[in-house]
Amino acid sequence: MVVDSPNRLVTAPLIWSHPEHTIELTPDEVSHIAGLAGFDVTKLRGIWICRDRDRGTILPLDPNAQAEGWTTIERCLAAANDPENSLLWWMEAARSERAPRVEELRNEVDRIYAKAWPERSRRFLTIIGTRSADGATFSSTEAGALIYGPYMPLRAGNHSVDFNIETMSNTSDVCVRVDVCGGGKEIVSRDLSASELKANNGRVTLRFHLPELQFGIEARVISYGNSELTAGLPDIG
Question: Which range of residues forms the domain containing residue 161?
Answer without folding.
Answer: 130-236
